[in-house]
Design goal:
The chain is α+β, with helices and mostly antiparallel strands and about 280 residues long. It contains nine helices and ten strands.
Length: about 280
């Protein structure tokens, strides 16, 4: 009897097969998000691996830390520590950069049309709302390089949607150039109250990494939300502004990263703007 595609056993078997082909895999739960950190790793207390340039020494046996947990080791994938995650898995994901590939994620019909006119052909996979174009070669990941277009490679994950069609070609300069450009601000950047506050208070940031880590953790918190997304976005904005909103270090680029994460979870521009404005008002910024 053929098992349905959403059967956790099918996901585990798929993961083992992909790992054997060299794709670092991880389970996704409902909402197409990775398994959340365990209690020992909550808030990155372990010094571990969520969305950081230099992954830490965390030795948690479970599938913690999003993209950084992806592995090709069949003993890890089938281990008891991962069993619970696979039992509730809704999909399989992989780390494109770890597999030496880059995905141009085209999320709208208009984005697909643009790619067909602009980028060299390569292997393509149909997605829910568009297509994944997969190129040979890794690079940094950047969201929203243009309307409906994300680049997923290093320090990112992508849902496995099948092998696709066509021959994979080398990563073109056109994609690298997209990532080299400063990512556009969220559409709400021109809306009153959506920009970064221009505080002049004393800076509590010991190093630039302190601010970077705070933003990365905030993005991860929003990304990991599986319910009450709007409340999570608001509380996360409030926490970021409380810690970083009075000294002037928080820039529009940081705000763009938070808004992009929220919109990826289904929040509208208006929801993001309202949540940001309400958080600033509550803190008197």
């Amino acid at each position: 009897m053929t098992q349905p595609d959403d059967n956790p056993r099918v996901h585990l078997a798929t993961a083992v097969r992909l790992a054997a082909d060299g794709l670092p895999v991880l389970p996704l739960r409902k909402g197409k998000v990775p398994v959340g950190n365990c209690r020992a790793c909550a808030g990155n207390a372990c010094g571990g691996r969520p969305n950081m340039k230099n992954p830490g020494p965390c030795a948690c046996p479970g599938p913690c830390h999003g993209w950084a947990t992806a592995t090709t080791d069949p003993h890890v994938i089938t281990s008891p520590a991962w069993a619970r995650a696979w039992r509730s898995a809704a999909a399989v994901a992989y780390h494109p950069g770890g597999a030496g590939v880059t995905i141009v994620d085209l999320d709208t019909p208009a984005a697909v049309t643009w790619a067909r006119r602009t980028l060299p052909g390569t292997r393509t996979v149909a997605s829910t709302r568009g297509e994944h174009w997969i190129y040979r070669g890794a690079m940094r990941s950047v969201n929203a390089v243009r309307e409906g277009v994300d680049i997923k490679s290093a320090m990112s994950y992508a849902r496995w949607l099948g092998p696709g069609t066509g021959t994979m070609t080398a990563l073109p300069e056109a994609v690298s150039e997209l990532a080299a450009k400063e990512p556009p601000p969220p559409p709400s950047a021109a809306v009153a109250g959506a920009a970064a506050p221009g505080g002049t208070g004393p800076c509590r940031h010991r190093t630039p990494a302190f601010l970077e880590r705070g933003i990365a953790m905030a993005v991860q918190r929003i990304t990991d939300a599986s319910s009450r997304v709007h409340a999570t976005v608001y509380s996360t904005f409030l926490a970021v502004l409380s810690a970083h909103g009075r000294c002037g270090c928080l820039t529009d680029v940081h705000v763009a990263r938070l808004f992009t994460a929220a919109q990826a979870k289904g929040e509208t521009v208006r929801h993001c703007t309202d949540a940001w404005t309400n958080a600033r008002t509550r803190l008197g910024l």
